[in-house]
Amino acid sequence: MEDGAQSPAARDPNVEDPADVEDDSSSTVLDLTCCQLHDLDSVELPPHLTELDLTTNRLSTLDPRIGHLCNLKKLSFRQNLLTDAAVEPLSAWHDISGLEELVLRDNQLRKIPDVSIFKKLLVFDVSFNEITSPNGLCRVSNTLKELYVSKNEVMKMEEIDHFHELQILELGSNKLKVMENLQNLTNLQELWLGRNRIKAVNLCGLTGIKKISLQSNRLTSMTGFESCIALEELYLSHNGISKMEGLSSLVNLRVLDVSSNKLTSVDDIQNLTQLEDLWLNDNRIESLQAIVEAVAGSTEKLTTIYLENNPCAKSPDYLATLRQTFPNIQQIDSNIFS
């Protein structure tokens, strides 16, 4: 370092100096988060590393030494300055082909990188980039359990049908119009598709899924979830839904969010005896008594209900009625009760 120059940590007390990171050749975990590094020239990489976290730095190239850490299982380049050209060396790093988790979230990628060399990959994250197409996902290992491609520019759900072991699929904040190619994802537990342009629900026969988010889409109907009998959490806020339907078979549902829609009544949830959280705020629901009757099946279970910005919430005995009806209620809108 030149005379008079300061390390990132010296300039900013909130930034860790890599020199302060424990230097132990036997260490298996190296966390260099928020060191604001432009390169790793000043950093020693212990040969037995199993985890390397380079989150929130200024890296624009990959240090070739990483490619020789043969025990590496987890590698994160989250929030750096990596481009497509910068990550190309990954495809030839045979020594770390046993990698199980690769995070390239929040960089400058425009396409899915070639990670076909990683035959044991379980987690792959390319969210918050500038990816316009899913082309390349077909080369990602079918061992994958978690795939994150949110906040990109992807327009179609493609090249995912070989992910038979996938449990979490995150494609929120893209430009998707159609739900498709999900039929082979029989182990899927969570599907996150918020902030897209989807007009209709199509789960392609999936029945074991537990969490679904379709918030901020263009839905006008709730039909399509009837066979998802294992479903525990359903998020449908900020759509154009005018009627609650297709819910009676979802007997395991604990969380239901249909806020910010066009509902005038609460229907088809009498069978939902496990319901704990119910979000109905910002709709057009008139009758408070009708809500009480509709949620009668989960009177004992319900702990949270949102009804603000509905005509029924203007009733003078609004809070008192709800507290009397639901003995275990802990929150009504922004009101929290002990």
UniProtKB/TrEMBL annotation:
<dbReference type="InterPro" id="IPR001611">
    <property type="entry name" value="Leu-rich_rpt"/>
</dbReference>
<protein>
    <recommendedName>
        <fullName>Protein phosphatase 1 regulatory subunit pprA</fullName>
    </recommendedName>
</protein>
<keyword id="KW-0677">Repeat</keyword>
<dbReference type="InterPro" id="IPR003591">
    <property type="entry name" value="Leu-rich_rpt_typical-subtyp"/>
</dbReference>
<keyword id="KW-0433">Leucine-rich repeat</keyword>
<dbReference type="InterPro" id="IPR032675">
    <property type="entry name" value="LRR_dom_sf"/>
</dbReference>
<dbReference type="Pfam" id="PF12799">
    <property type="entry name" value="LRR_4"/>
</dbReference>
<feature type="region of interest" description="Disordered">
    <location>
        <begin position="1"/>
        <end position="25"/>
    </location>
</feature>
<feature type="compositionally biased region" description="Acidic residues">
    <location>
        <begin position="15"/>
        <end position="25"/>
    </location>
</feature>
<dbReference type="InterPro" id="IPR025875">
    <property type="entry name" value="Leu-rich_rpt_4"/>
</dbReference>
<dbReference type="GO" id="GO:0005737">
    <property type="term" value="C:cytoplasm"/>
</dbReference>
